[in-house]
C-alpha cells in the first residue's frame, strides 16, 4: 500500500465536501447529541465542587486555605456523597468519550436518519438517567439498566461501522 503524503491528504479535502457534511442531517443529529452528553459530563466537575463545598470536604490541604488553619486537617477527608458524584463523573468519561469517537465514525457511514436518531437519543437519555440514578442514589436496577443501555448503543454503532467499512 503506497504511503500518502500530508500534502496529498490535505489537497483531497475539498472545502465544499466539508461544508456538505455540516448539512447532513445525521451529522447534525450526532453533533447535537454529542454536545448534549459532553456538556452533561462537563457539568459533573462543578457538581463535584458544589458537593465538596456544601459538605465542607476537601481533597487537598491547599484547598482549605480559605478556612481557619485549625480546621484544615479535619476538612481533608472523603464524603460518601462527594465520592458518588466523582464516580458518576468517572463513569461519564468511560462511556461518553467512546460514544463520541464511535458516533462520529457511525455518522460517516450514512445510516438512516431514524436509526441514527434512535441511537443518539437512547444514549443521551441513558446517560442522563444514569446520572440521576447515581447522584440521587435511586435503587437498583435503575442505574444498572441505564448503564447497560448506554453501553449497547456504541456497540451497535461500532457493528455498523465495522460491517460497512471492514477492510482486513
Automatic annotation (TrEMBL):
Name listed for the protein in its UniProt record: Microsomal glutathione S-transferase 1
GO molecular function: glutathione transferase activity
Topology versus the membrane: Multi-pass membrane protein
Species per Swiss-Prot/TrEMBL record: Scophthalmus maximus
EC annotation from Swiss-Prot or TrEMBL: 2.5.1.18
UniProt KW keywords: Acetylation, Endoplasmic reticulum, Membrane, Mitochondrion, Mitochondrion outer membrane, Transferase, Transmembrane, Transmembrane helix
Segments passing through the bilayer: 30-51, 96-124, 144-162
Summary of the function given for this chain in its UniProt record: Conjugation of reduced glutathione to a wide number of exogenous and endogenous hydrophobic electrophiles.
PANTHER family: MICROSOMAL GLUTATHIONE S-TRANSFERASE 1 (PTHR10689)
Organism domain of life: Eukaryota
InterPro entries for this protein: MAPEG-like_dom_sf (IPR023352), Membr-assoc_MAPEG (IPR001129), MGST1-like (IPR040162)
Main localization category: endoplasmic reticulum
Quaternary organization: Homotrimer; The trimer binds only one molecule of glutathione.
Reaction equations catalysed: RX + glutathione = an S-substituted glutathione + a halide anion + H(+)
Subcellular location: Endoplasmic reticulum membrane; Mitochondrion outer membrane
UniProt cross-references to Pfam families, sorted A to Z: MAPEG (PF01124)
Family stated for the protein in its record: Belongs to the MAPEG family.
GO cellular component: endoplasmic reticulum membrane; mitochondrial outer membrane
Amino acid at each position: 500500500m503506497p504511503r500518502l503524503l500530508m500534502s496529498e491528504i490535505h489537497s483531497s479535502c475539498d472545502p465544499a465536501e466539508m461544508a456538505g457534511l455540516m448539512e447532513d442531517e445525521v451529522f447534525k443529529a450526532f453533533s447535537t447529541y454529542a454536545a448534549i452528553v459532553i456538556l452533561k459530563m462537563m457539568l459533573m466537575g462543578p457538581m463535584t465542587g458544589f458537593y465538596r463545598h456544601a459538605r465542607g470536604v476537601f481533597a487537598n490541604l491547599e484547598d482549605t486555605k480559605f478556612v481557619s488553619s485549625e480546621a484544615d486537617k479535619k476538612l481533608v477527608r472523603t464524603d460518601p456523597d462527594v465520592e458518588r458524584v466523582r464516580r458518576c463523573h468517572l463513569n461519564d468519561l468511560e462511556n461518553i468519550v467512546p460514544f463520541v469517537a464511535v458516533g462520529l465514525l457511525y455518522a460517516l457511514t450514512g445510516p438512516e436518519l431514524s436509526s441514527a436518531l434512535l441511537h443518539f437519543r437512547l444514549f443521551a437519555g441513558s446517560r442522563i438517567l444514569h446520572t440521576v440514578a447515581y447522584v440521587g442514589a435511586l435503587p437498583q436496577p435503575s442505574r444498572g439498566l441505564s448503564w447497560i443501555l448506554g453501553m449497547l448503543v456504541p456497540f451497535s454503532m461500532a457493528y455498523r461501522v465495522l460491517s460497512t467499512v471492514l477492510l482486513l
